[in-house]
Amino acid sequence: MIKQILSKNNIIKIFLILLFIIIVAGSTINTNFGLKILILVIAAVIGLIILNNPWHGFLLTIFSLPFLNVGTIQIGITLLPSQFLGAITLIAFILSNILFKKNRFVKVPYFTLLLIFFLIVIFVSLINYPRLLMKDSPEMWGGIARNPSGRTIAQIISLGLMIGIYFLTVNILNSQKRLPTAIKILLLSTFLISLYGFYQFVGFFFDLPFTASTYRVISGSWESSGMTPGVTASIPITARIKELSGIAPGIIRVASVVGEPKSLAFFLMPIIFLFLSLIVLKQRPFKSRFFSILSFISFLVIFILTFSRAAWALSIPILFLSLILIFRYLKNPQKKMKLIFKIIIILLASYCVVHGIFAIFGYNLTLFLTPRTQSMSAAWQSSMDYPQLQTTLNLIPKNLIFGVGWGNATFYLPYFGYVTFAPNLYLNILFETGIFGLSIFLIFLGALLLSTWRALKKIEDTAWQKLILSLFVAVLSLLICLLYVSWWTNNPFLWVLIGMLAASVKLGLQKEKSLC
User: What long-range pairs does 338-342 form, CB within 8 A, spacing at least 24?
Assistant: First the structure.
C-alpha cells in the first residue's frame, strides 16, 4: 500500500491534496499551536487514505454527517467534518479520473440545472457586491468570511463544493453493493450519535462530563447561547454544567457535540423515516431484526429529547406522506393491511420504550407532549425566528429579481447581533438569488423527484423499488424540514441524500434485481 501511495503517478495528487489540507486545516484552525499540528497530521493521514481510495473517503464523509458540531474549524464560517472530508474526497476522485483515468465520470441527473443555478448565484453576488460593501458585519462574529468583503466568496466556494459532493455521490455509488453500504454507514453513525444522546440525557442527572449543549472540541470550552451580543464568553468545562445543558420547560434538550437541539431534530427526521420505510418494506439494513428495531427506537428517543417544536409539527405531515407513498406502490390489499399493522406495532412499541425511559428519570411523556403541542403558536410568536421571517418577507419584494447575493441575508436581518437567516431555506434562496435562482433550484428538485416517481413505476415488485422508495421518503422528509431550517445548502447531508436518491434511480433503471 505504501509503495502504491508513493508511486510516481501519485506524487501530483499527494502534493495538491496535502497543500489543500495545510491551507485549510493548518493555517486557519483557531487553537493552540500543538493541537493545530496534531490536527494537521491527522488530516494528512486521512488525506493519504482518501488518496489511495476515494471510496474510503466517501464512507468517512458519510460517517461524519451526523456530527453536526464536532471539531468545527472556525475560519469565519463553520467548517464541518463532513465538509472537509467531502472536499478532499472530491479532489482525490477528480484527480484520479483526470490524471490517471482510475475512475469514469457518469452522467449526473440534472447536473446542468445545478450549474445554471451556480452561475446565477455568482451573477447576483457580483451585482450586489457594491451595495453589500456599505453594510456592517454582525458584531458578535469576526473573521474574513464573516464580513461583507469575504463572506460572498466563502459562501460561493462552499456552494460549489456542495454541488461537487452531489456530483461525487452519484459517480461513486456506481454499483449495487456500494449504495446499501453507504446507507448502512449512515445509519450506524446516527445510531452512535443516539447513544451519545442517551449519555448526555443521563449525564445531566449525575453530573457526568461533556453534557453541556454547545461543547466545542477544538476550543475546549463551553459556549453559552445566552451571552450578550458582541461578547464571546467561555467558562471552565467543570462549571455550570446543568445551566448549559439546555433545559427546556419539562425536559432536557439533547444537543452537545452533535449540534443544537433543532439542528439534530431536523437531521434525525429523514433518518427516522428512511429507517421506518426500510423496516416496513422488509429491507432491513442490518441482518439482525433486533438491532434494526433497537436502532429505530434509539433514533426516535433522541428525536424526542431534542425537543424541537417545529420538528414535532412537521413529523405529522411527513408520516402521512410516507404512508401514502408506500401504499401507492403496494398492489396487494393483504400486504397493505399487514403493513398498517406492522407500523402500528413499531410505533406503539417505540412509544412504550420512550415512555419507560422518561419514567425512570421522573418524566411523564404524555404530560410532556400535551402542553408542548398547545404552546406551539405562542412559542412561535415569541421566538427569534418570527421577526426574522417577517423581515425577510418584507425585504423580498424589493429584491425579487437580483436578490441580495449568496450568503448575504445575514447583513439584512440584524437580530440578536449574530449571523442569522429566516427559518426557511426556500425563502432564503429567493431572498439571496432572486426569483430566477429559486426557480432553477426548484426545477432541479422537481425534475429529480419526478424522475424518481417514474422509475418507481418501471421497477415494480423489485428490491430496488423498495430501496428507492425508502430514499424517496427520506428526501421528501428533508425537503419538508427545509421549510423551517435555512442553512443546509452548505451541509453535505442535503447533497449526499439527494445524490443517493439520484444514484439509486440510475441503478434501478439498469434493472438490477437484487441487493447484496
Answer: 339/280, 342/279, 342/280
